[in-house]
């Protein structure tokens, strides 16, 4: 790679730090950008800068948004009495793609993992408790991963919310143990949402 000029090497190194991008892919992307028109390259650079400057977390559900409140939280057609609890915005997107859910979300921003030093105060459980108002919220669906951390997080939230008389459900079978929601196909996700079970 030393045969390239320094600006090319720098961009290859920057791109190769992105998840899933190895040196060869980073090199191909860099050369593609180099051969693109100045306008295309400028648009890409401007889009990245705009992304970093305009995207924030929704003040209600903590999903990505370009406003104080995201499109889902402000959508009048969504069922505001139904909250689906997920680990991150990628998991929320997976549920949305199934088209089998029409409530709102709560994004934890992580899962409980004592081994990694992640406790209840390190994710947004406290914020979920504030949203869990009986009468206003009819059901909370726990859609965390089915691995050890996801199950531990779901169990902890269940114990915290049990006395609220809000219906608590867990996404049903169809999601394999240890499965990552972002890689589940749409039909499997739809069936998991339809067949969720209570505690």
What would you say this structure looks like, in words?
The structure is a single chain. By secondary structure, the protein is of the alpha/beta class. The strands form 2 sheets. Strands 4-3-5-6-7 form a 5-stranded mixed sheet. Strands 1-2 form a two-stranded antiparallel ribbon. The radius of gyration is 21 Å and the shape is elongated. The chain has 8 helices and 7 strands; from the N terminus they run αααββαβαβαβαβαβ. The protein has helices at residues 6-16, 23-35, 38-54, 71-74, 89-98, 125-131, 148-161, 186-194, and strands at 56-57, 64-65, 79-86, 103-107, 139-142, 167-170, 197-198. The chain folds into 2 domains: 6-54, RecR Domain 1 (Helicase, Ruva Protein, domain 3); 64-198, Dna Topoisomerase Vi A Subunit, Chain: A, domain 2 (3-Layer(aba) Sandwich), CATH 3.40.1360.10. It starts with 5 loop residues before the first helix and ends with a strand. Strand 3 (79-86), helix 5 and strand 4 (103-107) form a beta-alpha-beta unit. 43% of the residues lie in helices and 14% in strands. Helix 1 crosses helix 2 (23-35) and helix 5 crosses helix 8.
């Amino acid at each position: 790679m030393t045969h390239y000029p320094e600006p090319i090497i720098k961009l290859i190194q920057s791109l190769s730090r992105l998840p899933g991008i190895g040196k060869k892919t980073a090199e191909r992307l860099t050369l593609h950008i180099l051969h693109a028109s100045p306008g295309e390259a400028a648009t890409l650079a401007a889009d990245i800068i705009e992304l970093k400057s305009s995207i924030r977390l929704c003040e209600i559900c903590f999903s990505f948004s370009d406003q104080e409140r995201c499109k889902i939280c402000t959508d009048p057609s969504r069922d505001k009495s139904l909250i689906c609890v997920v680990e991150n915005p990628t998991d929320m997107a997976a549920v949305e793609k199934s088209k089998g859910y029409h409530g709102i979300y709560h994004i934890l921003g992580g899962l409980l993992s004592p081994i990694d030093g992640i406790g209840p105060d390190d994710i947004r459980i406290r914020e979920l408790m504030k949203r869990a108002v009986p009468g206003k919220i009819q059901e909370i669906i726990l859609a965390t991963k089915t691995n050890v951390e996801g199950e531990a997080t779901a169990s902890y939230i269940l114990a915290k919310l049990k006395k609220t008389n809000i219906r608590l459900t867990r996404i049903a079978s169809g999601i394999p143990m240890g499965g990552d929601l972002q890689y589940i196909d749409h039909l499997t996700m739809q069936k998991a949402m339809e067949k969720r079970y209570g505690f």
